[in-house]
Amino acid sequence: MTPLPFAATLRLQFHREFTFDHAIPLVPYFRKLGISHLYASPLLASTPGSMHGYDTVDCHLIDPDRGGIDGLRRLVSRLRQEGMGLILDIVPNHMGVGPDNGWWMDVLRLGQRSAYAQHFDITWQPADPDLHHKVLLPFLGSPLGDIIEAGELVLAFNEETGHAEIHYGDQRFPLSPESEKALLGEAKYHGSLPVTPAFLTTETGKNLTKKLHSLLDPHTKSGRARIEALLDAQHYRLAWWRVAGDLINWRRFFDVTSLIALRMDRREVFDDAHRLVFELYREGLIDGLRVDHVDGLARPAEYCSRLRGRLDALRRERPVPLQSQAPFLIEKILQRNEILPLEWPVTGTTGYDFLEQVDLLLHHPGGEAPITELWSEFGPVDFEEVEHVARHEKLDTSFYGEFETLVALLAKEFPTERDLTPHALGSALRALLTVFPVYRSYFADGGDSGADFRAIDKARLEAQHMLPVYQHEILDQLCQYLADARIDTAERQDILERFEHLTAPLTAKAGEDTAFYRYARLLSRNDVGCSPDRFSAPASYFHRMNKERLSSHPQALLTTATHDHKRGEDGRTRLMVLSEPESEWSHTVRKWLRNSQSFLEKTSHGPSPVPADAYFIFQTLISSWPHEKSEMQAYPERLEAYLTKALRESGERTNWSHPDEAYEEACLAFARTCITGEFHIEIATYVNRIENAAALNSLSQTLLRMTSPGVPDLYQGREGWDFSLVDPDNRRPVDYERRERMLAEGQSFEESCHEWKTGRAKQALIETVLNLRLKQPDLFEKGHYKSLEATGPLATHIVAFERESSSGAYLVIAPRLTMALSPNNDLSTLHGDWASTTLPTQGRWRSLLHQAPLSDNPVFSLSYLNGTIPIDILVRE
């Protein structure tokens, strides 16, 4: 079958419980829905049992848990029968550590002699001389001495390799060849290595094992000494997990010690890590790539150019029908006013920027002042203040070692400045890192764009306010050094890479993984890619962003739900309604807080949730409250898992390192009371009051995602309602049987709105628009974009635009600020004012969602929306 154009993607999370063979029967359903390409989570072999695939352990193998290479071929064969393609998510920044990663284990066994020693971003000569030529392994549950005395380190032979290794729980640490030979010699074994499994089952082999355990008996002085000597002889140093932030000498993914960064800037590493990926592309098993965490790479521009070059070179070797240019998408979070570097040869981002764009559009600006005043009673009004505190905390804990190393290297670069002490330099660097406005600059990549200079200059001006006047000159020198490309030395390159490898994880960990859980002004504004300090934006901003994307990256992904979102896309649209004055949110929640306080005082004999956390819990309940009674049974367990994670991520009254279980239980008990106790009716009644308006928001968000410039991405199952919470809740199994049944029944959009809670209304809208996209791909990719400004009494409640090309035109009408429209249970509105609301467009338009015939008038009246749901996509006849 002729390949479909790159028109719409559907993200699937593959794992051992949802393999390629589970997806194959669903392909016809996805095709009928209007999907052109599946968009697969990482498929290279990952840590056994991994449910996400971002912990790759073998770049040369398709994960057996997911179905292996044969399963992938079966899936792609079925896709090709429908004309569909496959986009693959790859993870070039890091790999999972552990015994299943052969590269990693080889480095632990051979140290710098390993063929893979330069594959990983390891500092072999760190400041700590005890770590020279060693890899720190902060994987122990207690200090090393305690672990040795407790006998938790056990010597054993690996049944596959035949070599001796140290076992600690499920972890395996290989011995260096020299130490292994010496130890076996001390045990009077002088046979060949590796030891065969068959030998170990003999009486002699069993005696050897006993002898080794006797030599390494932790209960004897000599045994402990031998264990310590054996550990000293390794190319690694075992350590307590708590020292990781201070001492670790290899770069992690953020602060996750189970993931080690790759040196993707090295050509041989690039080739080795992408060998299978390129073969899959050449063979026609994949059609494009999504690159995870591009900002984690040392030189993203170089990487993107190299990857695009290889994909383009391989195009001519692909099957003839599949030789169009590969979509190449990158996961990058764009901060406020940041644009994707235009010189990067990529198709676009994965769409977090669109999530922010549509989110701002659907919030009511009139709600900012009262909700901000409400939040001021619980916490700091300024989000930046919350984030800056979190950045300081992360610099003192998770990233302390990286920070101190960077300060030491910078100090060596200013030897003639006698008064520029490491402490003064560290103070300036800390201030700069605290206010750095984007995830990273690209100076280390040879970048000299105005954006990089603006970012560092903006940070310099803001950092001045955090420093005494006499340190401003130090800050200026630091910024000048970082931005001065004339200093072309290996030392500056190393410093730039370390600086840029620090700003990105610091921004992420302090922002979306910490401050987003502390700052709860309105949680619909706290999602990946969003700036919680911004509350709303006018329709003109939405249109401007659409035009810019059409001009620069017309096939970038558009998303409103991902495997990483903080809360489901339809949960966010419920919270958006709280911004509207008609929701009376401030009055309602104040009443709830008063009532809950008196309730807690009557029932609690221990800690109680502080008001900020109670407020957070109330919003969480509103966003995730199930539509159907059948979902209530699993809801308490889901909610408790989420709140435990949220409270610990916040790190204010409990955390992952030192959990305050009493406080956590108080919050969970409070949440249980809201679900099953006396607050249940209050919350259920309020959700029922706002949910029609929220559903309109959801449909508007869906329509805008599918019609704005770009390629819409549908996260698995989100053609139905999505009230999920953060992972792993947002990765739960999808009821595809129900979705297939609804699609087969074919109820129209207008009919389905009478029973909109089934989810068919959302599915029907998606089906209608995506199939139009497949029929007219050029219109959606290249059509001229014209924003339309409505006039009349309901003008502020409409966002509209027109797309036009030589192949046709379509008109989009989407509602916003929906509670004021008073939608009823079938989502229609009774406002007669639609008749007086018009759009400045001409032509004979045919509605795809409604039955009304529309005539060719000089001014387009919305009168046909009277008594029906005020949303539409129309095509010009």
Tag the structure with descriptive keywords.
alpha/beta, 877 residues, five-stranded antiparallel beta sheet, 44% helix
A few lines on this structure:
With 877 residues, the chain is an alpha/beta fold.
Can you describe this structure?
The structure is a single chain. With 877 residues, the chain is an alpha/beta fold. It is built from 31 helices and 25 strands. The strands form seven sheets. It has an eight-stranded parallel beta sheet with strand order 16-15-14-5-2-1-18-17. Strands 19-20-21-25-23 form a five-stranded antiparallel beta sheet. α15 (383-396) packs across α17 (422-435) and α16 (400-412) crosses α17 (422-435). The longest helix is centred in the middle third of the chain and has 29 residues, at 490-518. The radius of gyration is 29 Å and the shape is globular. The model has no long low-confidence stretch (mean pLDDT 95).
Calculate the terminal CA-CA distance, rounded to whole Å. 29 Å
Global geometry: globular
Low-confidence runs: none
Rg, Cα atoms, Å: 29 Å
Give the % helix: 40-55%
Residue-averaged pLDDT: 95
Beta-strand residue fraction: 5-15%
What is the spatial order of strands in the main beta sheet?
16-15-14-5-2-1-18-17
Major sheet attributes: 8 strands, parallel
Structural class label: alpha/beta
Count of β-strands: 25
Number of helices: 31
